[in-house]
């Protein structure tokens, strides 16, 4: 149980390192939805640390739920990128606070959530995040399932 949960937490750490790599090395600024997708991985990393010191199957269940919620956010973002639905006004349109002037547009560059900044095999970063998050969530839930024998 503990090893599976730690493996899943390390997977989330790898996802965060990859995101920061794209941001700081690849110079791809994250949009609002990209930042939302990071929170479940950060929480999963924290849960992995807790799991290391206090193994408990319910922590594994929480890790699974958190990462699967992250998968939902990622697939929502992928749908926004594919124009299947609209995303938040704050990252799919022009700035709306104050008058729309050239100066306002230059002062507040908007990283658009509906633009695909990078893709591999036709799948965007958001799509890959969703796919990998499902695997990580399943690993967390498998840890929960295996923990029932120890309880």
User: How large is the count of helical segments?
Assistant: 6
Question: What is the radius of gyration?
Answer: 18 Å
Q: According to CATH, what is the topology? A: Bromodomain-like
Which spans of ≥5 residues are poorly predicted at pLDDT below 50? none
The level of helicity is: over 70%
Report the sheet-strand fraction.
under 5%
| CATH architecture field | Up-down Bundle
What spatial form do the alpha-carbon principal axes imply?
A: elongated
**What's the mean pLDDT score?**
88
The first-level CATH class is given as: Mainly Alpha
Q: What structural category do the secondary elements indicate?
A: mainly alpha
Q: How many domains would you count in the coordinates?
A: 1
| DSSP E strands, number | 2
- Main β-sheet, spatial strand arrangement: 1-2
Give a written overview of the molecule.
- The chain has 151 residues and is mainly α.
- The protein is built from six helices and two strands, in the order H-H-H-H-H-E-E-H.
- It has a two-stranded antiparallel sheet.
Summary, kept brief:
The protein has 151 residues and is mostly helical.
List keywords for this structure.
Bromodomain-like; 3% strand; elongated; 151 residues; 70% helix
Secondary structure topology:
Layout: H1 2-24, H2 32-53, H3 57-81, H4 89-92, H5 102-107, E1 119-120, E2 123-124, H6 125-150
Antiparallel strand pairs: 1-2
